[in-house]
Amino acid sequence: MDILNNLVFGFGVAFSLENLAYCFAGVALGTLIGVLPGVGPLVTIAMLFPITFHLPAVPAIIMLAGIFYGAQYGGSTTSILVNLPGETASAVTCIDGYQMARRGRAGPALATAALASFFAGCVGTLLIALAGPTLGEWALRFGAAEYTSLMLMALVASAVMTQGDAVKGLAMVVLGLLIGVVGVDVNSGMARYSFGIPELIDGIGFTVVAVGLFAVAEIVVNLESREAREVYTGRVTGLMPTARDLKDAAWPTVRGTAVGACFGVLPGTGPALSSFATYMLEKKLAKDPSRFGQGAIEGVAAPEAANNAAAQTAFIPMLTLGIPASATMAVMLAALTLQGIATGPQVMFDKPDLFWGLIASMWIGNFLLVILNLPLVGVWVRLLTVPYRWLFPSIILFSSIGNYSVSNNPFDVYLCAVIGVLGYVLVKLECEPAPLLLGYVLGPLLEENLRRALLIARGDPTVFFTRPISLAFMIATVLILVVMVVPAARGKRHGA
Amino acid sequence: MKPDLWNNRDFLAGLLFIVLGGLAVALARDYPIGSTMRMGPGYFPMVLGGILFLFGVYVLLRGVRSGDKVKGEWGYRPLALIALSIVLFGFLLDRVGMVPAIVVALFVAAAAGREFRLKEVLLLAVVMTAFSVAVFSYGLKLPYPLLGGY
After folding, report:
1. What is the ipTM of this complex?
2. Residue A188: which of B37, B40, B91 has the nearest Cβ?
């Protein structure tokens, strides 16, 4: 079978000593930093991104992916042991996970989270391997018009489905697209929005935007608020869940995986929404819903499976279509682009070592996570007590060094401070930064495809509606808008 | 303008979008627009700027009507100190070298926190400097002098 050959080939790539080492380094670093309270996967990956800059493409992507799911995983440890999740995706795990910890069942909670995540990770990876080539082959037929509509759909979905206000989300996408415009226009060679500053002619660097928008802004938000956090300080003893725990957790894990795998592919939803949705589902299905919130093991297994499955399947649109479904996938896409790889469906045919190597490495990485986490849980627990006042200056410092190292130019560092200020203001005004990042990453691609599509169609904009695939994307875009924006607007009017 | 508008969440967000969108349109007027068939470099940003402007107007008006306030205080002090820390790092790195830049950046950033314990920050500075030198200068071989400008 074709896919089997490909997987064998992928494992061959992933099992090379170099790639194995980078996979391990990524997973370990990701867990290490992801466990730290108040540091989510996105900040972790944005901060460590410049390190991979100096590596060849395959190990760089393998390591970044490892950092990503490692950090995602580390976040669940934090949410079980600290009553404050490092990131939204683990927020739901917090509810029952922390209750389990308080009842002296921190060990089984952590083990359940680990096993559920592992199961979901394996299924998610398998789905990438199965869906990737099919989707990719289909996408190879896409022309400029199809790509334009597809990107439009992804951007609208990401804006509308993230938490918060849909209209502001759309405005943030547009702002991101505009930031992406900065620099030389490839068609005419004209520098746009460069204000006569030579450094801006190449455009605004990706790390600058990601670090400024997420790391800097998030740190200032954390510093301004005075929320005390409650850390579980007891010792974690008795890791192994009982047979009953395993039985109780089995089906929720499977259901969580299914829900997460679906949500992961959709733009703008990702791990956060999927873990929330699956928690609600489990609560509905439970014989005794009142147990939820009191340390129900289903409330740990299902969301953890969901967010890990979503974290894996989010790679599907990014790898096969070149369209990131979340801000973290935007980082991955930017990493591929910076490595000089033309993203899109051709990746898996031009660079099979990268595509299949990455998939195989995810399997290995998920396995490493279990090994790394269960026996070493004591180490992670101790990390939780690191006070934030040591963490945030270090994050700022590493981000600055990273920004400087990408271009060897202090200008990028200054620009990061400016974007950090903008990011903080936007967060305070409750404008989600994730759609902005997606807009920024997709901006140049969108403009390029839009121009090409209209050139081919001799300036006739109906081209987006007469080609069937493009039409389908357009209809989906409109549907998303209608379903998500109209009830919100109506609800507000009723509420007022 | 009523003073409470300055704490009105959506009013401010709308205003920000209007200013940025307006700026984008104003600047894009210097770039050739072209036609729909052959778009010039000004076409895409001009349209985007216009859309952002309109979204801004909508959000601003909605803010005036709903009157929702910005939640919590504005963290001027941490914001200014964190930004200063980043800027100082960039400014100092190629002038006095990596080690002093790291120490200064760490101290300024730490000052943004709620508590500043000198002993802890000193220790943090020593550890982080050693770590950064090990990782970035020796590990990744970044060519920045540890001390002195270039």
Report:
1. 0.92
2. B40
